[in-house]
Structures are given as C-alpha cells and as structure tokens.
Amino acid sequence: MIEKTSFFAEPGRRAALPILVLLSLGFIAPLLAVVGFSFMPARTFGLWHEPTLENYETVFSDNTYISLFWSLGLASATVVLLALICYPVAYGLVRVFGRWSTVLTLLFTIPLVVSENIRLYGWVLFFIKGGVLPGTLRTLFGVEMGDFLFTPAAVLFGMVYVYLPFMLFPMTLGIAMVPNQMREAARDLGASRWQVFREVELPLSTPGLMIGSLLTFVLAIGAIAEAKVLGGQRIIPITHDIEIAFTYAQNWPLGAALAVLLMLVVSVLVLIVLRRFDLDQILGKR
Amino acid sequence: MTGTSEPILRLKNVRKAFGNLAAVDDINLSIGEGEFFTIVGPSGSGKTTLIRMLAGMERPTSGDILLRDKRINDTPANERPTCMVFQSLALFPHRTVGQNIEFALKIRNVDPATREKRARELMQQLHLPADYYSKNVTLCSGGERQRVALARALAFDPQILFFDEPLSAIDYKLRKTLEKELKDIHRETGKTFVYITHSLEEAMVMSDRIGVMRRGKLIQVGSPNEIYSTPRSRFVSEFMGDVNVIPVESNGAGSVRSQSLGASFKVPPASIEGKAQCLVVRPEFLRFLSSPSDAQNSLKGVLYNEYALGSRIQYQVRVGEKVFLVEKLRQQPFKGSLDDEVLIGWDPENSILVADE
C-alpha cells in the first residue's frame, strides 16, 4: 500500500528539526553569506548587487596564490612532521610506558589550557636574540646561534608544536585499536619485528593516522598566529590575506572569494584522502 | 595410537609464575610425533599459559621445553617451527582470504605465483570456495574464518600446530562438524596437533591422548578411553559430563560404606589407600531394577524428574537427600511415573573408586 504521508510523519524527522534549524542558521547561513559576498563587486557591503566574478579574477591575477601555496606547503609539512614525530610517541604511550602513559598524556594536554598566542610569545622569548636558548648557548658554550626566529622554519616549528596533540591522540587511539593477538599471530607466522610493524601494525593503525592527519591539516591550513608571531610576518599565509581583506582593506567580497577558494581546495583534498582510505570500512567492520 | 612414536616435544618441570602465583606448575610431558594431544581444563587452570609457552609467546620461569631434543625456551615465536591458531583467530582484517593464508609465505619471500598456488590448494583442502581467494576476510562467516585461520597456519608448514580453543565461540552444530574436519586434517597432514579446550567432550572426539589440567598441574594424562572410564580423581570424573559421586569410606576388602546413605556397596578390588574416597558411577551404568537381587548394589529412591536427551532419557532419582542420575536409551522399556518409588542399581565393575579431590 502506497500512501503519501507528510514529510514529518516519518519517525525521527520531527525530533531532528531543532538541530536542523540550528545548523541552518548557525552553520549553513553564514557559509552561504560568504559564498554570496564572493560574487559581489569589490568593496561593497550588501548582498543585493549584480553578481560578478571580478574578485576571483583579482585573486588569480594578483599574487595571492603565493599565500595559498605557503599555507598548503606549511600545512602539508606540518602533517608529515607530526606523523613522524607522533607515531613513536603514540606507540610508546600505548605499548611501552605502561602506567606512566596517563601522566604523559596529561603533560601533553596541559599546554592546551594556555592560549595559543601566549605560548607562541613564550617561544619568541625562548628563541629571540639574547633570549633563553641563544643566550644560554653564548654564555655557557660561547656558541653563536644563527637566526631562527622570524624564518619559515620557525613558523613550521610553531605549527608542529601547537597541533601536536591533535595528531597524537587520534594516533594513540589508532594504535590501541590493534589487537595484541594480531601482533602475536604475525610473529608466530615468522614475521620479524619490522615485518610485524609493516604488515600488521601500521596498516591496522592507519585510521588513527588518517584522522590525525585530516584534523591537523585542516587546523594547520587555517593557522595564522604562528606566521604572525614566530614568522614576524615574513610569510603571509592565506588566512592572513583573508583577515587583511576583511579588516584593513575593508574589501569583504575579496576576502570572501579567498575564503571560498580555500574551502574548495581543502574540501577537494580531504575528499581525495577519504576516498582513498575508506574510514568506514577500516573502522566499521572488524 | 601414537603413544609409542618418538617424542617431538618434551616438557621437563616447566613452571611459569606470575608474581607469587604459579599459573603452570611443574609440568612433565612428552608429546609424540604426529600425535593429537589435547590439554583440557577449566578456565584459570593454566592451559593457555602452557600453550603460550610452547608457542613461544611466554617464557617459562623454570624448566625446559625441548623440541626434538633441542631446548627452545628462549627461541622467540617467529623462529620456532611451530604455529598457533588463536582463540580469536587473529585474522588480519585488512587482508583478503588469500593474503591471510599466504602471510607466512610472503614473510619468507616466496614468489606470488607459488604463494597463490599453495593458498588455493589449502583452500580446496579446507572446503573454502575458490572465489573466496580475493574476498575480504571480515566478510566471511564464523566457520569460514576458522578454516582460513587453519589454512594460514598450515601454509606455514609447522612441525607442531597449536590450537587455543579456536572453536569455543562457534555454535554447537558447526562445532561438531569442525571437530571432525580438524581430525580429518590431522590424518591428512600427519602433523602433531596440540589442542587446548575447556570441553572434555570436544577433547574426546578428536584426541589421541588427553591431559587434564587443574590449578596449573597436569593431574591425569591418558587416552580418551582411560580418562573416561578410569578417572583418578573426583575432579576428572566430574569434568566429563554427569556422574553420580558418593563419598565413601573403606569397609574391608571389596566393599565401601556411605555414611550419608547408610548403605554398603561392593566395589572392584583396586582401591586407593590413605585418601578420602568417592565412588563414581556414570548415569548410563545405573539402571532401574524390579527387585534388589537384580544388581549387586541397589538403592531405593523416588523418581523426581525426567529429562529427554535425544537418543537417551535421563531420570533424576532422589535417595533421601542425595540426587542420582539414571540414564537409559529411549527404546528401552520403562514404565515409571514421577513420584513413584523406584529401585536403582549397578554392578561393581561399572563403578570406580577415585580420590576425593
């Protein structure tokens, strides 16, 4: 029997209504506004002008793409470095440190309580000429340290430092998800420690690595404070450009166009990764 | 069957302690080449710890494990020519059926064509459909996964195959099929199988010899028939299904007396000295009598309940406080009804005196 029922007769739909309204107002509406603004004439503040593509032309004819490349490059480098740094640490937290793991986890979490900017200024004091590190080196060992602060390397350092927990914890989870009997079974079948890692542990902990990478990549591409504080504005990431457009330049449509472009690039990258590694398949069935 | 063959594996005073607790305590055992040896025990008896030491995943605290007279205590699992099928099976979920089976060969750098050929042979031997080769192992059913796990272990070509209760999570009917298949595979391959289970029934079906473990010790080793018909202790006799156990004390040659039943029973001549004793009679050896003279031992009781067990029927008979189980084949005639007074009895040769421990 086919009966036409109203949309809200379906169970669950009415219950989903409040969250639907909240998401529409709080999440989708601002996004649509940004997309709308990106098609408005430059330096206008209304959404009801004749749509135009001039902002996108400006983005591509201008040298804004350099900022985009800096952002993408730094974010990618951050993810790669974090993966290399965090895997051994996460492995240790799960398999080696035993009951010290809790204490270590706490130590990794505590810095998150302090504002990111304050922590970054702490690093400035640490690295600045005559600061904690160069000063100590000169006084104790007579070693002159080259310039590190206000270089791209310092920006990268800051990003790796700030986003470390966001890679570490998903990764820890990923490694903890590998049943110990898998390792034992592989070893029992003749695999050396390295083969156990390559054939069993690494592939089975990939979900954690993937989630950590996605999370840190998305966070890192939106990073702005590291370049400002540790990079001394020598590097301008795309987020900085967007901020300038919306504030000093008072050119909302250009800022919106940049934001839309950034969203597109990130979404495409994330989709490619999610396609390649079907998280549902890895996580869902065991 | 293989009690006389050369021992492949020998254990000398093997002990494993975790802190003050000895999980495995002073085990001495020889397992013959090609034998199907099963270690049975309740959970916590130390059987898993024992097999993990044999497979190389735990190190004994003391004692020696000898494989063909070579001490292997400190040889890691990956260097031992043995392989284990785990309780959880531990199949690699990110690999296909074929890749799982080929794992050991891949580790040894066998070329892909040879690997696949061997995997397909094993799949056929274990009744796995050929098109499962590229199927994701997580999509296989319980029974299929058992077969994949066994194939993966066989592909390793081990000298000894260990099994850590692999069938415990499988439903009854399939388990019965797989038990028989496993015994067939044992015949086909001629390899030494060492199996662990908490079910003596499962052990009976498959094994050449059975070792019963309790609290870290091996308390009896023998053929399934020996374990079944001549258990040495109350524990072993009770482990194999329903039994009637009567605490008794010696009452001169060939006779024992039960305080609680206020009766004496004739027993076979062999007796146990110096220990508390129990008289064990299996339900199938108890029968209903029409007069006390029909059997050498008899008791009067009340028929309390009956349980149909398929081909057999079991009756609960109460003699005072004591509950007895009597079994008969379905086709044997019996016209008792509940709450009837009945006479039950057995012959001395069908009863066993065991230590009360």
Automatic annotation (TrEMBL), chain A:
It is found in: Cell membrane. It is a multi-pass membrane protein. GO terms for cellular component: plasma membrane. Belongs to the binding-protein-dependent transport system permease family. CysTW subfamily. Residues 68-273 form the ABC transmembrane type-1 domain. The chain crosses the membrane at residues 20-40, 68-90, 97-114, 120-141, 148-169, 209-231, 252-274. This is Spermidine/putrescine transport system permease protein. It comes from the Bacteria. InterPro entries: MetI-like, MetI-like_sf. Keywords: Cell membrane, Membrane, Transmembrane, Transmembrane helix, Transport. The keyword Transmembrane helix applies. GO terms for biological process: transmembrane transport. SUPFAM superfamilies: MetI-like (SSF161098). The keyword Transferase does not apply. PROSITE patterns: ABC_TM1.
UniProtKB/TrEMBL annotation, chain B:
GO terms for molecular function: ATP binding; ATP hydrolysis activity; transmembrane transporter activity. Pfam families: ABC_tran, TOBE_2. InterPro entries: AAA+_ATPase, ABC_SmlMolc_Importer, ABC_transporter-like_ATP-bd, ABC_transporter-like_CS, Mo/tungstate-bd_C_term_dom, P-loop_NTPase, Transp-assoc_OB_typ2. Residues 9-240 form the ABC transporter domain. GO terms for cellular component: ATP-binding cassette (ABC) transporter complex. Keywords: ATP-binding, Nucleotide-binding, Transport. GO terms for biological process: quaternary ammonium group transport. The keyword Protease does not apply. The keyword Transmembrane helix does not apply. Belongs to the ABC transporter superfamily. This is Spermidine/putrescine transport system ATP-binding protein. The lineage of its organism: Bacteria, Pseudomonadati, Pseudomonadota, Alphaproteobacteria, Hyphomicrobiales.
